[in-house]
Amino acid sequence: MPKTALVVDDTEMHRSATRTYLIMSGFKVDVANDGLEAMKLLNTKTFDLIVADIEMPNMNGMELLKRIRNHKQSSATPVIMLSTLDSPEMQTKLKQLGANYYLVKPFTGERIKAALQAVGL
Q1: Helices (DSSP H) in the chain: which residue ranges?
Q2: Cis peptide before 88 (omega within 30 of 0)
């Protein structure tokens, strides 16, 4: 059975690219446009991986990450956070909130593979 991933990003281009990389890595992928949509999906399904952007409308990635970590079904799910911000402070904050990996946009398939290996997938 293929592993499942949820990609959360408000930019269609980034959502599509991330989805494609994950499909090429053997995942079945669902997508959400923001944190609110992601939480609706998380209330109905479980995922093996969540990849989320930080800067989104309605519910940003940091708030989503907090909710994931407090959500019974997804609290232990590996989360890879995405951002255009390459900031050590942001990396530290995300790690404190429970992110498993931080990936700076734009990224390549090789960087996604490294992130998947880093989170044990």
Answers
A1: 12-24, 35-42, 61-69, 88-97, 109-118
A2: no
- What are the residues whose beta carbons fall under 8 Å from the beta carbon of 1, sequence distance 6 or more? none
Which has the closest alpha carbon to 51: 2, 4, 1? Answer: 4
Low-confidence spans in the chain with pLDDT less than 50: none
Q: Taking the domains of the chain in order of start, what are their residue ranges? A: 3-118
Domain 3-118 has CATH 3.10.450.710: no
Give the CA count within 13 Å in the CB-facing half-sphere of 115. Answer: 26
The amino acid at residue 88 is P
Handedness of CA 55, 101, 116, 78 (dihedral sign): negative
pLDDT at 1: 81
Q: What are phi and psi of 59, to 5 degrees?
A: -150, 115
